[in-house]
Amino acid sequence: MKKQSNRKQSKISKSIIFSMVFLVLGFILSYSYSLSQARDGGADYAADSQFEEEERIREELIEQQERNKTLREEMQAKQNELQEYESSFSDGEEVFSELAEEAEMLRRYTGLMPVEGEGLKVVLEDGEYGAQDVNPNEYIVHESHVFQVIHEMYISGAEAISVNGQRIHSNSTIVCTGPVIEVDGVQYPAPFIIEGIGNPEVLAASMELSGGVLDQLVNDNVIVTINQGVAISMPALLSES
Fold it and tell me: Which of 22, 170, 181, 235 is the most exposed place for a label (fewest CB within 10 A)?
């Protein structure tokens, strides 16, 4: 009986030991499998993360390239606009320069600015007469004679004209009252000095044309003296109040 009891106890002990061994082995195998899975899963997760990061960087790079392209196009458009502006500004400068020259010329013609330069001086004096039966009006300078000289100077290119130092303008009036001539309300006795700023040779040649103004004045008994190439200075007209 005792031997049988010892055998049973021995079998039970072995069974318990084997059970413990198998339990430990099972736990070890299970843990090893779990660890292996965790490692494999971590590797897959790392690989996925790296792929996603590469994709994100690639997308950002593509997006940046698109932005750079857009910026280059905008910069090119701005450069084109700048070139057009510079071109138009250059054209505008030329137009402005031409307008400024034209405006200055008009101011000179209208008497709004003082002028000086070379030109022609024409002096008209009353003719000499001695016979008592001669009409004195046929030997004195009239406004028509002054007008003839002024008109000839203008059509010959004179920029400015004065009579006895008084500037002539588009609305000037010249009236003969006996032995004097009234220019814009101011009276001047003979001799009458008519000066014109312009090309002296052209002005003189125009006056001395055969059958022209000089011949007509001489025929009217007017004494005429012509000096070309003289320096002439004229003030600006006073503003009308």
Answer: 170
Per-residue pLDDT for 57 more than 50? yes
**Planar angle of CA 7, 13, 14, nearest 5 degrees:** 90
Domain boundaries, the chain: 1-110, 116-234
pLDDT, tens digit, for every residue of 62-108? 887 787 778 777 767 776 777 776 677 666 666 667 777 776 666 66
Q: What does the alpha-carbon distance between residue 194 and residue 182 come to, in Å, rounded to a whole number?
A: 14
Do 194 and 226 touch, CB atoms closer than 8 A? no
Structural contact between residues 237 and 167, judged by C-beta atoms closer than 8 angstroms: yes
Note whether 174 and 143 are within 8 A (CB). Answer: yes
Q: Which residue has the tokens 């499998």?
A: 33
* Residue-wise pLDDT tens digits, 128-150: 876 666 777 888 899 999 999 99
In DSSP notation, 80-96 reads: HHHHHHHHHHHHHHHHH
pTM, 2 dp: 0.57
Helices (H) and strands (E) in the chain, counts: 4, 8
Please choose, from the candidates 181, 120, 117, the residue with its C-alpha nearest in 3D space to the C-alpha of residue 147: 181
